[in-house]
Amino acid sequence: RSKDEGKDRWSYFTSDMKIDSDEEARLEQELRHALRRDEFFLVFQPQVDNRTQQVTGVEALVRWQHPTRGVLAPGAFLDVMEKTSLAVPLGQIVLDKAIAAAGKWKKAGLHFGRMAVNLSPSHLPSGTLLQDFLNAMTKYDVGPELLTAEVLESVFLDTERNHNWHVLEELYDRGIHIELDDFGTGYASLSHVADLPINGLKIDRSFTAQILTDNKKEIVVNHLIHLARALNINVVCEGVETETQFERLRMMGNFSVQGYLIARPMTFDQMTTWLDASPNDLTYFI
Ligand code: C2E
Ligand code: MG
Ligand code: MG
Ligand code: MG
After folding, report:
1. What is the mean pLDDT of residues 17-46?
2. pTM of the entire predicted model
3. What is the mean pLDDT of the chain?
4. Which domain of life is it from (predicted)?
5. What is the reported pLDDT for 157?
6. ipTM of the complex model
7. CA of 181 relative to ligand 3 center, distance in Å
8. Which protein residues touch ligand 1 with a CB less than 6 Å away?
9. Nearest atom, ligand 1, residue 45 CA
10. SS3 sequence of 39-61
């Protein structure tokens, strides 16, 4: 390996970093404005029981109504939010809006199972999370039995582990469900899962996408589902896009599914209509 090669790579890397950090600084500024101007809103995606088709939950997913670029998904801005101090205020807004929506459906007598909110990894150690939940729950008259917090496996494993663990246990003890998101992409093993204060796990859509083509993935998913059941842990299978995937999963047992096959994420009004139509049999989406 020549010295020149190393040098070239390094200078390329630094100039690249510079562009990135300029862009990031600009985005960070825009995001600050966005928080002040209330440009964030939620879309909702249902989770349904794969036998009865009953709605078991609705996941709230954040979107940014950008002034010039249209509606942006979290992939376009969440990383920068996490790197700065903005993830906590965004998390507070998301909690408030999600629990407000849950309150409206509750008042309207619409069954939606639980409202599932994605927690930012930085919101957990912030010291405000529990109070943020309680404030919104009081404000919109929503009890813990209507709420789920979705967290990444990593929140139990990082340096804040002890504190995060404590905060999640507080939510758990109050009856808010805790679910491990994107299960299978991180480090958690099922033996570890048995000791966590969690009610469920969401099998990542990268598994769902491969069950039909990769026999080993299918075996892993099948065992995850059976072990979770044995441990009395709920399962949501993410990213179900086709009838064939749905049918294959159905052969593995009775659990919840979420994905484009059932419904794409929708606006509050669309979700209200969807819940109101309250499908009674599987032919509704198959
Ligand atoms: P996630 O929590 O795993 O959410 C599922 C993602 O998969 C969503 O993307 C959803 O739109 C997408 N999806 C659902 N069904 C299907 C399907 O059948 N096929 C495919 N290809 N995709 C499907 P989205 O909304 O872009 O969110 C991406 C990630 O951003 C989420 O992954 C979550 O980790 C994070 N996120 C979303 N909303 C929030 C939020 O309010 N707060 C925080 N902290 N993170 C959020
Ligand atoms: Mg999620
Ligand atoms: Mg997920
Ligand atoms: Mg995911």
Report:
1. 90
2. 0.92
3. 89
4. Bacteria
5. 77
6. 0.98
7. 5
8. 45, 61-62, 73-75, 78, 94, 118, 120, 150, 181-182, 205, 238-241, 259-260, 265
9. 14
10. CEEEEEEEEEECCCCCEEEEEEE
